[in-house]
Amino acid sequence: MNKTFKTLLTIATASMLLAACDQKETKTEPVAKKASTIEEIQKEKGKPARIAKASTQTITDVRKFSGSIEGMQQNSAICKMGDPLAKIHVQVGSTVKKDQVLAEYLFTGDNTQYQQAAEQVKLLEAATQRMRDVFDKGGISQQDMDAQETNLKIAKMNLETARRASLILAPEAGVVTELKFKEGQTPGVGGVLATIAKLDNVILKLNVTSQDIGYFKKGAAATVTIAGEKMKGKVSLIPLAANPTTRFFPVEVTFNNKGKKLLPGMYVTAELDARQVNGVAVPTEAVVYRNGSNAVWIVDEEGKARRKLVKLGVQTKEFIQIAEGLEGNESVIVEGMSRMNDGDKVLVVE
């Protein structure tokens, strides 16, 4: 029995020694260390970034120019007498017809041309009637009768001229866009009482420099924004010479204005579709300006970030033309480039 116990003890001891060896070997095997910091995670998987593809596009070069709105066929109602204004029959915004009375003068006795002309017409009318009676009886010749009737016609024309001079009339049909005087004031001979304009269409007048006049083409589209609403117009006049005093080119853009939202005197900024250009373009957020240079971050074939210096061309709200620096098939970083260093591994995210 002692022999059997010794044998079992020997087997148990051997088993314990083998188990101890297995545990020792297991403890000596190296364990892979997991990344625990953001820097380690980014080094292993890459810095997160959102990308877009550079591509060849046709971009509209939009230029901004500012100027004043004027009515179509804008005319001034001119005063022809030096008397004070007795009554003004219109106000700003009134719609008027041609020759409608806008205002009347206060009669002071200093200007009696109309009264004199009216008395002259009355006198000639009475004389003409008497001569007709005599003519019917054969007392005067046809020539004398014709001469008298001609004198009456001339007198009536003079009366109408004097009447028109004694009133301020609308030179054209349209809308009163400006009144410069009030009742009781004296505009004086030649003074402008009101401005009359047609507002179904209006003109935006732009003073354009010699450097920019080449961008304008007749019929080119232009847009202005009024109270959040975009209104479309077209370039209607491009002068062949600059104003000799200002050295600017007075370009005109015509707008349909049926809603009467563009009013004379408004100072507005128009966006002009100046030209179409073809070239490599990237989203505007892809371009980074730093230390006087423009750059774009791209992701190369190895998935690493590379900084590319670029020269910019035409810019819009959404895209920028890259005149130099890209070929047109690169993956450009549009978000996350602020954390990038040249050569960093990039983790592309949606």
TrEMBL record:
Residues 280-346 form the YknX-like C-terminal permuted SH3-like domain. The keyword Signal applies. Residues 1-19 form the signal peptide. It comes from the Bacteria. Residues 204-274 form the CusB-like beta-barrel domain. PROSITE patterns: PROKAR_LIPOPROTEIN. InterPro entries: Beta-barrel_RND_2 (IPR058792), RND_pump_MFP (IPR006143), YknX-like_C (IPR058637). GO terms for molecular function: efflux transmembrane transporter activity. GO terms for cellular component: efflux pump complex. Keywords: Signal. Belongs to the membrane fusion protein (MFP) (TC 8.A.1) family. This is RND family efflux transporter MFP subunit.
